[in-house]
Amino acid sequence: MHLLVIEDERALCETIVRSLRRLAYSVDYCYDGEKALALLGVERYDLVLLDLNLPKKDGMTVLRTLRQTDRETRVLILSARSEVEDKVQGLDAGANDYLAKPFDLDELLARVSVQLRHASRGAGRSSGTLRFKDWVLDAEARTLTAAGDPVRLTRLEFGIVEALVRRPKKVFTKRELFQAAWNEEAFVEEKAVNVHVSNIRGKLKPSGTDGYIETVWGIGFKLAE
Ligand code: CA
């Protein structure tokens, strides 16, 4: 399980990170909202612990930005703002739980474990509608509509597009794209990924959206900004 702790009170941040690592979770952390968004743009987390009062970008901005592209990552707000209104606002913006400061560390770890249970139950299940520019992906029906027209993709092709759209800012190596789309650790060969991407672009051409997938020379692929 991969977690991100966003908390500008460094002593508190260190305490939380240390406790989580002791439970063998893989934990990243940062002290401000800008760094948080940078990490969320490239890393995939099962759970984010999010303080609301943060420098550079506040926690609500981080949450709303995350939720524009990602409904799945669990978010637990940790906040000194204990008012009901703040709690409701946080949950409305897509947080999964809210814990008021000061909190007991055991209480925090219990809430984390509840969220991670939900996260593992959701893992591997793709749900909801994903959007990128003129694309609309239905992750359940596994269909893509480009500029209003349905595009017939194979299962593997859809997996590639879905992986890219789920992490729109990430540069995928061919290996990463393969693993995300095929859901397997094995890797056949990079050429296969090139062939699939080329086929996808061909199918997207009539909708004028074939330029959405950019080649990053020497690395792999990403979505166009
Ligand atoms: Ca704070």
Order of adjacent strands in the largest pleated sheet: 2-1-3-4-5
Which ions and ligands are bound to the chains?
calcium ion
Instruction: Briefly note the structural class of the backbone.
Output: alpha/beta
What is the CA-based Rg, rounded?
Answer: 19 Å
Helix content: 40-55%
Give the rounded overall mean pLDDT: 88
Q: How many beta strands in the DSSP annotation?
A: 12
Query: H/E order of the elements?
Result: EHEHEHEHEHEEEEHEHHEE
- How would you sum up the major sheet? 5 strands, parallel
% residues in beta strands: 15-25%
If helices are DSSP runs of H or I spanning 4 or more residues, what is the number of helices? Answer: 8
Shape descriptor reads: elongated
Low-pLDDT ranges = none
The rounded distance between the terminal residues' Cα atoms is 29 Å
Strand and helix map with partners:
Layout: E1 2-6, H1 10-22, E2 26-30, H2 33-42, E3 47-51, H3 59-69, E4 74-79, H4 84-92, E5 97-100, H5 105-122, E6 129-132, E7 135-138, E8 143-146, E9 149-151, H6 155-166, E10 172-173, H7 174-182, H8 190-204, E11 213-216, E12 220-223
Parallel strand pairs: 1-2, 1-3, 3-4, 4-5
Antiparallel strand pairs: 6-7, 7-8, 8-9, 10-12, 11-12
Helix pairs in contact: 2-3, 6-7, 6-8
Bound molecules: calcium ion.
Calcium ion is lined by residues 8-9, 51, 53-54.
Could you describe the 3D structure shown?
Helices cover 43% and strands 22% of the residues. The protein has 225 residues and is α/β, with parallel strands linked by helices. The strands form three sheets. A five-stranded parallel β-sheet has the order 2-1-3-4-5, with helices on both faces. The two termini are 29 Å apart.
